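User: Predict Protein-serine/threonine kinase's structure from this.
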Amino acid sequence: MGAASHSLPRSPSWLGRRSRAACHVKAPLSHPRRSHTAAQGAAVAPRWRPSSALDEWVLREARPISLRQLTFFGRTLTESRLLDSANYCRLELPTRIAHRLRDIQTLPYVVVANPHLAHVYELYLRAFERFRRVSNIRTQEDNDRYCNVLEETLKEHATVIPRLALGVLEVRGMMNTEELDRFMTTMLRSRISRRVIAEQHLALTETFHSPWHFPDAQSPHESLSAESVGEIFLRCNAKEIVEHCGDMTRELMVRSYGSHIQLPDINVVGHVGATFPYIVSHLEYIVGELLRNSMQAVIEQRRFRGGKPPPIEVTICENPQHVIIRISDRGGGIATEVLPHLWGFSKGPRRDQRLENLARVPKLLGTMQELRVPGEGDRSNRKTSKYSDSSQHSGSLSSLTSRPPDLRLGIGLPMSRLYAEYWAGSLDIHSLEGYGADAFLQISKLGNKNERQVRHMTFG
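Assistant:
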C-alpha cells in the first residue's frame, strides 16, 4: 500500500458522477465506531490506477463452462489439450478479475476506503497485472511456469473471504444492505468460478505428469483414475458423501463439546445409489455445513435433558434431471429474528459477534477440510473414503487455515447456497420454530448446465 494519508485522495475519473456523489455520504454522528472505521479506512485507501489495460479486459465477456464440457475436454488428455486448457485459463482469469475490479471501482469511495475491501482490491489488482502479462503458452515448460503462478495466487487469495465479510459488515451503515449483499454474492460467485478454472487446470497438469497417465491409451486402459477428471468426480454417490461428511462432523462435535457428549445418529434413506458428476469439495462444503448446523442444533437443544438425542434424517431423491438431498433435524428450528437474515452477508442481529469471530480467521478457502483441527488426537482410526483426497489442490490448502471447531462465522449458509447455485442447483431451508428444520439441496444430475454467470454490478 502507498504512504498513509489522512485525507481522501482526489476522486479518480472512472468513479463517474453517481459514485462521486456517493463519496459525500456521511456516517451518522450517533455511531462513533462507524465513523472511526471510515477514518481508519481513509488512511489506507487503495491506490486507484485508471488503466487502459483494465478497460480493454472489461470489454471482454467471460466464456461460461459446464461440468460436462470440463469432463469431455479432460477425459482424453494430450499435450495439445493441456496447452489449450492453459491458454483458456490465461485469457479467462484476467477477464473475470477485470470485471470484479470494475465492480469495486463503482462502489462509493467511502466504502472502498474500508481497509478490508481495499486489501481485496489490491490483491485482485496484483493478480490481474500478473495474469494479463502471461504470454501464449506453447510448451510444457511454459505451462509448468504458469502453474506456479496459479498456485501462488490461489494461496495469496486465501484471505479474500474473511476480508470481504469483515468489510461488508463494517460498512453496512454506509450503503444499502441489499446492495451490499448483491456485491458480496457477485464477488464470491466470481471467486468460485475462477478457482474452478484454475484448480481444474492444475489438476489436469498433475494428471498429465503422473507416471500412470498414458496420453495415447484407449479405453478401458486410458486412465487408472476413471472415477475423476481433474477436480470433477464423475460418479459422486450422494449417500457416501453424506456419510463422509457425517464422520467429519461427528469428529468436530467431539472436539467442540467433549467425548462425553451423546451425538445424534445420521440415518440415510431413499435412492441411496444415486450418482452424478460434481466437484467434491463444493458438495462436501454444502453438506458439511448443513450437517454441522443440524447436529449443533440438536446437541444444544438436548444436551441437558439426558437420553439419546433424536436422529438426523437424510432423504435422497433421484429423478431424471436432479438429485435432491433433504436433511431434517429436531433441533428446535431457527429463531424468528434470525430467519429473515439467513442468506444475507451484511444483515442480521449478530453482527458484532460475527465481526469478532471473523477477525479470528485470517484465511478461509471455503472447503470442508477447514473444519478439521490439526495436531489434536489420534487419527489412526479415522475412516477413509474415496472422496478424501478428491480435491487435491483446495483440500491440501486446509493446512493454511485455522478454524476452531466451535467458531461460528455466520457465512456458512449463504456460501453454501452460492456453491449450490453455481452449477444450476438450489438450497432452501424450511423451519418450524420450536421443533426443527428441513434443508433441501437440489443438484443438477446431468452436469450439462453452464456455471451461473456473474453480471456487472450497478449501484443506485
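The chain is about 45% helix and 10% strand.
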